[in-house]
Design goal:
Helix content is 36%, strand content 15%. The protein has 375 residues and is an alpha/beta fold. The strands form 3 sheets. The protein has a 6-stranded parallel sheet, with helices on both faces. A 5-stranded parallel sheet has the order 2-1-3-4-5. Helix 10 (242-247) links the parallel strand 10 (228-231) and strand 11 (250-251). Helix 4 (92-109) crosses helix 12. The longest helix is centred in the C-terminal third of the chain and has 19 residues, at 260-278. The radius of gyration is 21 Å and the shape is globular. The model has no long low-confidence stretch (mean pLDDT 96).
């Protein structure tokens, strides 16, 4: 059995070697020639699985260690009986951590409190639901827009996109990239859509770059109609628009979901799916070598601090979003390298918090988000 794998899929090396010949190669270098006698292909978003790549090969299984799968021609795969799988929800807690850090950074540096502000969440799947949980926990009002869910569950708990845009203080996108169909999200945010956003609203995009049309976003930022933007995803990655990067309050290289936990989850989901398909006896496999954070214990003196100040100190201890922002601005041409060499980042559940003079309410809020808390 032969497997070709993106060499940047973390924690994979050694897991499949007892069962197969495994060839590791950079995702963009995977071509039809190397796949000719390949049984399975394990990828990330940089490998485009289309007829051009797959015709004439022996590939029977494709696994992407990512939430999204718009880089896989699923129609072609289904037609040619190629099993494909992704890793839904694998990095949802990582994106929650990213959005939490961004919200707390934006509120601090722009002199407003998050409690009582309205967060509009566009796309309320695995990721959007985690973002909703954080926002509600810290006392934000939340508006939800998710047409597929609204059709299934009823419209009671959901808002139309235009209503959400007119009422939100901050809008954050967590949708898949759909280029056609009823729920098309390609350039969902264009000139017309941005004109519907209430003046002063902040715009966050950590979904897919193509969901927001670049020139329209630059124009609305230049006009001063938006309060500001947090941008993790870009059209034409890795060749990003540096003018947009300069305009953004926070600009990062598509790493919102790049926590070490999220990567380990994605790899585990793909390995287990492959094992099940090829009957490899790797049941419930999970990496055994996930490193701990450098400083897993957090001590906070809560005296004289607001709940938001306490949360800011704790969340930014787990993830300093400034570092990712600065790295991209220093060298935007290293976009892929910044992703490929991304440093260790562990999620909330890897940290214990000791609160001095902390309230029971703060303890419960932190535990809701997965922290281990000692008062």
């Amino acid at each position: 059995m032969k497997i070709v794998a993106d060499d940047k899929i973390p924690f994979l090396k050694g897991a499949l070697e007892p069962y197969a010949e495994v060839i590791y190669i950079p995702g963009k270098q995977i071509d039809r020639e190397i796949l000719k006698d390949c049984d399975a292909l394990l990828i990330r978003t940089r490998t485009k699985c289309t007829a051009d790549l797959l015709d004439g090969t022996n590939v029977r299984f494709i696994g992407t260690a990512t939430i999204g799968f718009d880089h896989i021609d699923t129609h072609y795969c289904n037609k040619n009986k190629i099993i494909w799988t992704n890793a839904p929800g694998c990095n949802s807690s990582s994106v929650q951590q990213y959005i939490a850090a961004a919200l707390l950074k934006v509120s601090s540096e722009n002199s407003f409190n998050l409690r009582g502000k309205t967060l509009g969440i566009v796309g309320v799947g695995n990721v959007g639901s985690k973002v909703e949980k954080f926002a509600r926990t810290i006392g934000m009002n939340v508006l939800l827009c998710d047409p597929p869910r609204a059709r299934l569950e009823g419209k009671k708990n959901f808002h139309s996109l235009n209503a959400l845009l007119s009422e939100s203080d901050i809008v954050t996108l967590h949708v898949p990239l759909n280029v056609v169909g009823e729920d098309c999200t390609y350039h969902l945010f264009n000139d017309e859509r941005f004109k519907k956003i209430r003046r002063g609203t902040w715009f966050f995009n950590s979904s897919r770059g193509e969901v927001a049309e670049t020139n329209a976003l630059k124009q609305v930022l230049d006009s001063g109609n938006l309060g500001g933007a947090v941008i993790d995803v870009w059209e034409n990655e890795p060749d990003i628009d540096t003018e947009l990067m300069e305009q953004a309050f926070i600009a990062t290289p598509h790493i919102a979901g790049y926590s070490t936990d999220g990567k380990a989850n994605g790899t585990a989901m793909v390995v287990n799916s492959l094992s099940k398909y090829f009957n490899l006896s790797l049941e419930n496999w999970y990496p055994g070598n996930v490193p701990l954070p450098a400083f897993p214990s957090i001590s906070i003196d809560c005296k004289g601090k607001s709940e938001e100040e306490i949360f800011r100190e704790i969340v930014l201890h787990t993830y300093n979003i400034d570092e990712d922002n600065e790295r991209l601005r220093l060298s935007p041409s290293d976009f892929e390298k910044l992703r490929g060499d991304y440093p260790l980042r562990r999620e909330f559940t890897s940290y214990s918090v000791r609160l001095k003079d902390g309230s029971e309410e703060v303890r419960q809020m932190l535990e809701t988000l997965g922290f281990k808390v000692k008062v």
